[in-house]
Structure formats: structure tokens, C-alpha cells
Amino acid sequence: MQAWPEFVTVKEVGPRDGLQNESSHIPTNVKIEWINLLSEAGFISIEISSFVHPKWIPQLKDAKEVATAIRRNDQITYAALVPNKKGLEAAIETNVDEVAVFISASESHNQNNINKSIEQTYPVLREVVEEAKYHQKRVRGYLSTAFGCPYEGDVPIQQVIDVAARLLDMGIDEISFGDTIGVANPKQVDDMLTKIKQELDMERVAMHFHNTHGMALANVLVSLEHGVTTFDSSLGGLGGCPYAKGASGNLATDDLVHMLHQMGIETGIQEDRMREAASYIQEALGKPLPSHQMQVINRMKQGESL
Questions:
Q1: Which of 241, 244, 252, 297 is catalytic?
Q2: pLDDT at residue 1 in the model
């Protein structure tokens, strides 16, 4: 019988990764209220926005306003994505608790994403990491295309691990291995984590799955078997990658939390308050959220039988 962990950390990335692809403008006050609802639901880590240039992600151009207006809870880590030192400066000004940097495991995706080779990206990230550490910020690293690239296809496992090792050597506290286009399958995750356990510190490993082909929860299960206890997810299944066509649908936080709780694994998240937060952003967006939990709620609201 598998010995499951007693507690899993669920990192909510909806306010950043979930909203960045939305074409319709989401008012700043809506983002603020949504984050406040997430805080009240018991999340211990919320990625609130991204300090990138507005021309790249216009939806998140109000990152400063959001970061300074939310109701902070000292028990919650409020994180933000930063692309470079300038973005870091803005994040520090707003006193976020954690900054996240990003790089791809495949050359083509890295070039398309940030217009630099992987090797050219390391000095930029190192500068951010050193400055963030000077300001006593926790630093997280997103490693995109860890399970497949929209331009190159399969990415060798050793190549993924080599990039991750370089990030950890810089002093990054945690690496989130991203299934950017949602192609990971349970066997692939098993193979990847078997190798990662031989070369990296598993306590600094997190997983970021997309549900493009419906395998995200199965991939979480395999990850749990390997001892992974930190997962990124987006409430309602919002979001994807703006630089990977068709990669919509993050792992849905509400589906993940429901599964974990049914397995007897604690998260600290209150499911009823989480559903309130999901319903709030669904109404603000004016469209149904794709998660299974929200589909059930929406059908019940319409009086349909389950």
C-alpha cells in the first residue's frame, strides 16, 4: 500500500497564469477581490501577478496596483513572476514575499518566449536571484517545456535536469517542472522523477501540470508516489501558456484539492470557500470555468441531475 503524504502544498497560480491569456480586460478591483477570496480560503501560496512589460502581457499591467491593494495575511506567501532585474525592482517595491523567474528546457521555446538562448538566459537570472536574495526574498524557478516542446517535440530528461541543476546552483529555492503544452503522461512523469531523485534535492522540486489531454491528475498521482508534495494549479482550470498554441487548461485547483482531500491528504484549503472564489471569478469572466468541480456546480445551479 502506498504511503501518501499527510500534507500537500497547493500553490495557486490563477491570478497570474490563469488570467494572462484572457483576452477581455479584467478590472483591477476584480483581481484584488479574487486574491482576497483566495486568501480567505486557506491557500498558503498565491501567485498574484507578473511584473513583465505591459506590451507582452497587457492583462497584468496593473501588477503594482494589485500587489499593493490586496489584504495581506502574514501566513500566506504572495508571489509574482519577474522576467529581469527591472521587473524585480518593481516586485520589491510592492513587497512581494517570493519572486519567480523562468527559463525553458528547450532552446526553441526559450528563444520564442524571451528571445534568448538558454545559455544567454543564465546571467540574467543569476542577477535577479542575487538581488532578490539580497532583499531576503524567496526565489522560485519555473522550468518550462520539461515534458515536451511545441517546436522540438520531446525534450531529453538529462537536458531538463541539467538546466534545473544550473538554477539550483544559483541559489533558487524551488524548481517547478512545467508541462507547458500538457503532453506529459504518467509513465513519462515516472521516468522523469526516477532520474530527478538521483540527481536533485526532491525537497526543492514542484510540479506544474497542464490538463490539455486530461492527464494532469494522473500525473499528480505518480508524482505523489515519488514523494513530490508541492503542486501548482489554477482555480477552475484557467490559463495556459501564451507562447504555446493550444496549451490551454492548467491543472484545476478545485479538482486537485478535491482529489487530495478524498485521499485523506490535507492542504489547509477550505473547499467551500475555494468554490466561492471560483464562482466569483467565473461570474467576472462571464463564462463557465472548465474544471470538473465547477461543471458540477454549474449543472446543479441549472437544476440538472448529476
A1: 241
A2: 52
